[in-house]
Amino acid sequence: MVSSTYKGFRFSREIIAHCVWLYHRFTLSFREIELIMAARGVEVSHETIRTWCARFGPEFARRLRQRAPRPGDKWHLDEVFIKVGGVRKYLWRAVDQHGNVLDILILGKRDGKAATRFFRTLLKKQGSRPRVLITDKLASYRVAHRKMMSRVAHRQNKYLNNRCENSHQPTRQRERAMKGFRSVGAAQRFLASFSRISPYFRPPRHRMTAIDHRTEAAIRFQVWDQVVEQAVAA
Protein backbone atom coordinates (compact mmCIF):
# COMPACT_ATOMS: atom_id res chain seq x y z
CA MET A 1 0.00 0.00 0.00
CA VAL A 2 1.41 3.38 -1.05
CA SER A 3 1.33 6.31 1.32
CA SER A 4 0.15 9.78 0.35
CA THR A 5 3.77 10.99 -0.11
CA TYR A 6 3.57 10.39 -3.87
CA LYS A 7 -0.18 10.60 -4.22
CA GLY A 8 -1.24 12.78 -7.13
CA PHE A 9 2.03 12.45 -9.03
CA ARG A 10 1.67 10.63 -12.35
CA PHE A 11 5.39 9.83 -12.65
CA SER A 12 6.93 6.88 -10.87
CA ARG A 13 8.93 7.06 -7.67
CA GLU A 14 12.10 6.11 -9.55
CA ILE A 15 11.83 9.03 -11.97
CA ILE A 16 11.05 11.55 -9.24
CA ALA A 17 13.89 10.35 -7.02
CA HIS A 18 16.34 10.32 -9.92
CA CYS A 19 15.57 13.95 -10.81
CA VAL A 20 15.91 15.03 -7.19
CA TRP A 21 19.25 13.20 -6.98
CA LEU A 22 20.54 14.80 -10.20
CA TYR A 23 19.68 18.29 -8.99
CA HIS A 24 21.26 17.92 -5.56
CA ARG A 25 24.34 15.95 -6.60
CA PHE A 26 25.40 17.82 -9.73
CA THR A 27 25.44 21.50 -10.71
CA LEU A 28 22.56 21.06 -13.15
CA SER A 29 19.68 23.40 -13.81
CA PHE A 30 16.09 22.23 -14.02
CA ARG A 31 16.16 22.72 -17.80
CA GLU A 32 19.31 20.62 -18.09
CA ILE A 33 17.68 17.81 -16.12
CA GLU A 34 14.63 18.14 -18.37
CA LEU A 35 16.93 17.55 -21.36
CA ILE A 36 18.64 14.57 -19.72
CA MET A 37 15.29 12.95 -18.99
CA ALA A 38 14.08 13.67 -22.55
CA ALA A 39 17.14 11.82 -23.87
CA ARG A 40 15.94 8.84 -21.84
CA GLY A 41 12.44 9.04 -23.27
CA VAL A 42 10.81 10.77 -20.28
CA GLU A 43 8.89 13.93 -21.15
CA VAL A 44 8.75 16.09 -18.03
CA SER A 45 8.91 19.88 -17.78
CA HIS A 46 11.52 21.79 -15.81
CA GLU A 47 8.74 23.31 -13.68
CA THR A 48 7.61 19.84 -12.67
CA ILE A 49 11.17 18.93 -11.73
CA ARG A 50 11.42 22.13 -9.68
CA THR A 51 8.25 21.12 -7.81
CA TRP A 52 9.65 17.65 -7.12
CA CYS A 53 12.92 19.03 -5.74
CA ALA A 54 11.11 21.48 -3.47
CA ARG A 55 8.67 18.83 -2.26
CA PHE A 56 10.88 15.76 -1.88
CA GLY A 57 14.38 17.18 -1.38
CA PRO A 58 13.80 18.12 2.29
CA GLU A 59 12.09 14.79 2.98
CA PHE A 60 14.91 12.72 1.48
CA ALA A 61 17.46 14.84 3.35
CA ARG A 62 15.59 14.32 6.62
CA ARG A 63 15.58 10.56 6.16
CA LEU A 64 19.29 10.54 5.35
CA ARG A 65 19.88 12.55 8.53
CA GLN A 66 18.00 9.93 10.55
CA ARG A 67 20.31 7.23 9.19
CA ALA A 68 23.51 9.21 9.72
CA PRO A 69 25.96 7.97 12.37
CA ARG A 70 26.40 9.89 15.58
CA PRO A 71 28.46 13.04 14.97
CA GLY A 72 32.09 13.05 15.98
CA ASP A 73 33.26 14.85 19.11
CA LYS A 74 35.33 17.43 17.23
CA TRP A 75 33.35 20.16 15.51
CA HIS A 76 34.67 22.55 12.86
CA LEU A 77 32.78 25.81 12.33
CA ASP A 78 33.21 28.35 9.57
CA GLU A 79 31.28 31.07 7.78
CA VAL A 80 31.38 32.39 4.20
CA PHE A 81 29.50 35.18 2.52
CA ILE A 82 26.90 34.46 -0.14
CA LYS A 83 24.72 36.74 -2.24
CA VAL A 84 20.98 36.46 -1.62
CA GLY A 85 18.86 38.76 -3.76
CA GLY A 86 21.99 40.79 -4.46
CA VAL A 87 22.61 41.36 -0.73
CA ARG A 88 25.56 39.93 1.15
CA LYS A 89 24.61 37.31 3.74
CA TYR A 90 26.68 34.83 5.72
CA LEU A 91 26.37 31.08 5.54
CA TRP A 92 27.41 29.47 8.82
CA ARG A 93 28.34 25.78 8.70
CA ALA A 94 29.40 23.14 11.20
CA VAL A 95 30.95 19.77 10.32
CA ASP A 96 32.52 17.05 12.44
CA GLN A 97 36.04 15.66 12.02
CA HIS A 98 34.75 13.15 9.45
CA GLY A 99 33.37 15.91 7.21
CA ASN A 100 29.72 15.20 8.02
CA VAL A 101 27.64 18.38 7.90
CA LEU A 102 25.97 19.01 11.25
CA ASP A 103 24.01 22.14 10.45
CA ILE A 104 23.93 25.28 8.29
CA LEU A 105 22.30 28.66 8.89
CA ILE A 106 22.07 31.83 6.81
CA LEU A 107 22.32 35.07 8.78
CA GLY A 108 22.75 38.71 7.89
CA LYS A 109 25.81 39.31 10.06
CA ARG A 110 28.81 37.52 11.51
CA ASP A 111 29.04 39.32 14.84
CA GLY A 112 28.87 37.79 18.31
CA LYS A 113 25.06 37.80 18.33
CA ALA A 114 24.92 35.91 15.02
CA ALA A 115 27.53 33.39 16.18
CA THR A 116 25.62 32.82 19.42
CA ARG A 117 22.42 32.22 17.49
CA PHE A 118 24.14 29.65 15.30
CA PHE A 119 25.63 27.92 18.33
CA ARG A 120 22.20 27.77 19.95
CA THR A 121 20.60 26.30 16.82
CA LEU A 122 23.43 23.81 16.42
CA LEU A 123 23.27 22.59 20.03
CA LYS A 124 19.49 22.27 19.92
CA LYS A 125 19.62 20.11 16.79
CA GLN A 126 22.53 17.93 17.94
CA GLY A 127 21.39 17.53 21.53
CA SER A 128 24.97 17.25 22.81
CA ARG A 129 28.22 19.21 23.04
CA PRO A 130 31.51 18.40 21.33
CA ARG A 131 34.80 17.63 23.03
CA VAL A 132 36.68 20.16 20.89
CA LEU A 133 35.51 23.18 18.92
CA ILE A 134 37.70 24.40 16.03
CA THR A 135 37.18 27.77 14.34
CA ASP A 136 39.16 30.45 12.60
CA LYS A 137 40.25 33.58 14.50
CA LEU A 138 37.00 35.52 14.08
CA ALA A 139 36.33 37.20 17.44
CA SER A 140 32.61 36.37 17.23
CA TYR A 141 33.38 32.73 17.93
CA ARG A 142 34.96 33.61 21.25
CA VAL A 143 31.82 35.48 22.27
CA ALA A 144 29.54 32.58 21.36
CA HIS A 145 31.89 30.04 22.91
CA ARG A 146 31.93 31.93 26.19
CA LYS A 147 28.12 32.09 26.29
CA MET A 148 27.19 28.65 24.95
CA MET A 149 30.12 26.24 25.29
CA SER A 150 32.48 27.66 27.86
CA ARG A 151 33.50 24.19 29.11
CA VAL A 152 34.35 22.92 25.62
CA ALA A 153 37.95 23.20 24.45
CA HIS A 154 38.20 25.92 21.77
CA ARG A 155 40.98 26.04 19.22
CA GLN A 156 41.23 29.04 16.90
CA ASN A 157 43.53 28.40 13.96
CA LYS A 158 42.65 28.81 10.29
CA TYR A 159 44.95 25.96 9.28
CA LEU A 160 43.12 23.53 11.54
CA ASN A 161 39.79 24.43 9.98
CA ASN A 162 40.34 23.19 6.42
CA ARG A 163 37.73 20.49 7.00
CA CYS A 164 34.91 23.03 7.17
CA GLU A 165 36.35 25.33 4.52
CA ASN A 166 36.48 22.45 2.05
CA SER A 167 32.87 21.65 2.87
CA HIS A 168 31.87 25.04 1.45
CA GLN A 169 33.18 24.26 -2.04
CA PRO A 170 30.12 22.38 -3.42
CA THR A 171 27.91 25.23 -2.18
CA ARG A 172 30.09 27.75 -4.00
CA GLN A 173 29.81 25.72 -7.20
CA ARG A 174 26.04 25.53 -6.88
CA GLU A 175 25.77 29.23 -6.08
CA ARG A 176 27.63 30.10 -9.29
CA ALA A 177 25.50 27.71 -11.32
CA MET A 178 22.30 29.20 -9.90
CA LYS A 179 23.67 32.76 -10.29
CA GLY A 180 22.94 33.48 -6.66
CA PHE A 181 19.91 32.88 -4.48
CA ARG A 182 16.70 34.89 -4.63
CA SER A 183 15.58 34.89 -1.00
CA VAL A 184 16.92 33.85 2.40
CA GLY A 185 14.08 31.40 2.96
CA ALA A 186 14.55 29.69 -0.39
CA ALA A 187 18.32 29.55 0.08
CA GLN A 188 18.00 28.12 3.60
CA ARG A 189 15.56 25.43 2.47
CA PHE A 190 17.62 24.42 -0.54
CA LEU A 191 20.99 24.43 1.22
CA ALA A 192 19.61 22.44 4.15
CA SER A 193 18.72 19.64 1.72
CA PHE A 194 21.74 20.14 -0.53
CA SER A 195 24.16 20.01 2.40
CA ARG A 196 22.80 16.62 3.38
CA ILE A 197 22.31 14.94 -0.03
CA SER A 198 25.32 16.23 -1.97
CA PRO A 199 28.05 15.27 0.57
CA TYR A 200 26.47 11.85 0.99
CA PHE A 201 27.44 11.05 -2.59
CA ARG A 202 30.92 12.54 -2.23
CA PRO A 203 32.85 9.92 -0.22
CA PRO A 204 36.50 10.78 0.52
CA ARG A 205 37.87 9.12 -2.59
CA HIS A 206 41.44 10.27 -1.98
CA ARG A 207 41.55 8.02 1.07
CA MET A 208 40.17 4.93 -0.72
CA THR A 209 41.31 2.39 -3.26
CA ALA A 210 39.25 2.14 -6.45
CA ILE A 211 37.63 -1.09 -5.25
CA ASP A 212 36.78 0.40 -1.86
CA HIS A 213 35.32 3.49 -3.51
CA ARG A 214 33.06 1.43 -5.78
CA THR A 215 31.94 -0.66 -2.82
CA GLU A 216 31.19 2.44 -0.74
CA ALA A 217 29.29 4.04 -3.63
CA ALA A 218 27.18 0.89 -4.05
CA ILE A 219 26.34 0.90 -0.33
CA ARG A 220 25.31 4.54 -0.43
CA PHE A 221 23.07 3.99 -3.43
CA GLN A 222 21.42 1.08 -1.61
CA VAL A 223 20.71 3.36 1.35
CA TRP A 224 19.38 6.04 -1.02
CA ASP A 225 17.01 3.50 -2.58
CA GLN A 226 15.80 2.56 0.90
CA VAL A 227 15.28 6.22 1.80
CA VAL A 228 13.21 6.79 -1.33
CA GLU A 229 11.29 3.53 -0.88
CA GLN A 230 10.64 4.34 2.77
CA ALA A 231 8.92 7.54 1.70
CA VAL A 232 6.22 5.51 -0.08
CA ALA A 233 5.94 2.51 2.21
CA ALA A 234 2.76 2.22 4.22
Automatic annotation (TrEMBL):
Signal peptide: none annotated. It comes from the Bacteria. Residues 73-198 form the DDE domain. Keywords: DNA recombination, DNA-binding, Transposition. This is IS6 family transposase. It comes from Rhodococcus globerulus.
